[in-house]
Each structure stands twice: as C-alpha cells, then as structure tokens.
Amino acid sequence: MVIARSPKENQPKIIHVTPSHQYPLGMTMSFERRTALLDFARSHNAFIFEDDFYAEFRFTGAPLPCLQGIDNFSRVIYAGTMSKILYPSLRLGYLVAPEQLIDPLVKIRSTIDQHSSAIDQATLARFITEGFFLSHVKRMRKLYAERREFFIKEFNKLLSDRFILQIPEAGLNFVAWLRCDADFARVARVRAEIGIKPSPLSFYCIQAKLKPAFVFGFAAWTPAQIRESLLRLASALK
C-alpha cells in the first residue's frame, strides 16, 4: 500500500484493510504500518474500514492491537463477523464505528433488510455473556493450532521437493509456491480428487502476475484427512 504517493486529487475517502490476515497471501500488517496508516487517515480526513476477520486465530508472534484500539482520532470503522468463528450459516456481524457515523450507518442498514434474525442475535448474546463464546474461541484456537502444525509437518515431509510452503502468522490457510512451473497443470488436474482441494493463487488475481502457487486450507480437515490428501498429491506428482 503506497497511498502517500497517490495524486492529491485521488486521495481516498475510505481505506479498506484486513490487518490481521490478508487473504490469500496471509500477510499481517506490522505495528509500524498500522500507526502510519492511522496518521495518514487523520491527516487526509479519511476513514479506515478495518475488516478484522481471523484476528482470533493468530498462532505466532506477539499479539498486535487492532487499528480501532489505537485510534485516537475516530477514523476507524471496525468490522467483525461470527461466521468465521462459529459457523458460516450464522450471518451475524458487527461494527464498532465513530460516533458521528452511527446514525448514517443505522440508516444504511435499515435500507438493506431492517435487521438480522432477532432469535439469532438473542441466542448469540446469551452465548457471549454466559462465557461460552470465549471458551469456544480458546478450544477452536487450540484445535486449529494442532491441525496447522500437523499440516506444516506433513506437507514439508511429503512435498517440500515440489513446493515452498509460506507460513503466515495468522489465518487458516497456506500459500504453497511451486518450485517448477511445469507442475502447475498436473496439480490443477488432480486437485479436485485429493480431498483438500487447493485453489490456484491466480484465481484471486485480476491483473497481478504471480509465480504459480496454490492456496491450501487446513481448518476443516482432520489430521487423517490431511495426511491422506497430501499423500495423494505427492503420489500424483511423482
């Protein structure tokens, strides 16, 4: 992000960022870049929309504060979702917004669909206030950390001769860069048959030309499923 170099007439009014985990490459915004972005937003009268999905699933490195937590000038709109933490069909999210934006945001929300399910909201509120939500997050963080470590170990054991596995600090996916471009077509042919179904990194690109790579998820798979899928992929590439 090189916003400061943009022409003055094209300065943004709102900046959308995912500082905890950029999908699919998995980068985490450093503390220095977070403070620089806040300074830019303040000096250019812009707002930052902080989409903080996967903030709960950080596995390495020191914890980093969200932008909203270190914003002293009311420039950040913080957004979170329950569909990543609990289950996808629970279509509930939330915003923490500067006071001057609350009324406009409520009006915008009311023109979309009035409100989300009252039953879902009441159930979630009780789930949080009675301590179940925090227990769930701790349990899932432990489970995902175990699956993450298992995936890294098995992938490097079986496929390090074909891929370079990029390991992010947070999130529930990896990017694996092919060592040989010619293997791309072979992986693309068998990916639907191996279980974990990696996606080509190029699927997420509009104009960028990146080296051949695949995006692997690990959260939905048991260790046995991960091992079986990686064995199939390794066998297909022999």
Characteristics:
38% helix, 8 strands, globular, Aspartate Aminotransferase, domain 1, 4-stranded mixed sheet, Aspartate Aminotransferase, domain 2, 15% strand, 238 residues, 4-stranded antiparallel sheet, alpha/beta
Chart the SSEs and their pairings.
Blueprint: E1 14-17, H1 31-43, E2 47-51, E3 76-81, E4 93-96, H2 99-113, H3 118-129, H4 132-159, E5 163-166, E6 173-178, H5 183-190, E7 199-200, E8 213-217, H6 223-236
Helix pairs in contact: 4-6
How would you state the average pLDDT, rounded?
A: 91
Major beta sheet, strand line-up? 1-2-3-4
> Number of helical runs?
6
Number of strands: 8
Q: What is the CATH superfamily label of the largest domain?
A: Type I PLP-dependent aspartate aminotransferase-like (Major domain)
Describe, in plain words, how this protein is organized in 3D.
The protein is an alpha/beta fold and 238 residues long. The protein folds into two domains: 3-130, Type I PLP-dependent aspartate aminotransferase-like (Major domain) (Aspartate Aminotransferase, domain 2), CATH 3.40.640.10; 135-236, Aspartate Aminotransferase, domain 1. It has helices spanning 31-43, 99-113, 118-129, 132-159, 183-190, 223-236, and strands at 14-17, 47-51, 76-81, 93-96, 163-166, 173-178, 199-200, 213-217. The strands form two sheets. It has a four-stranded mixed sheet, covered by helices on one side. A four-stranded antiparallel sheet has the order 5-6-8-7. It is globular and about 60 Å long. The protein starts with 13 loop residues before the first strand and ends with a helix.
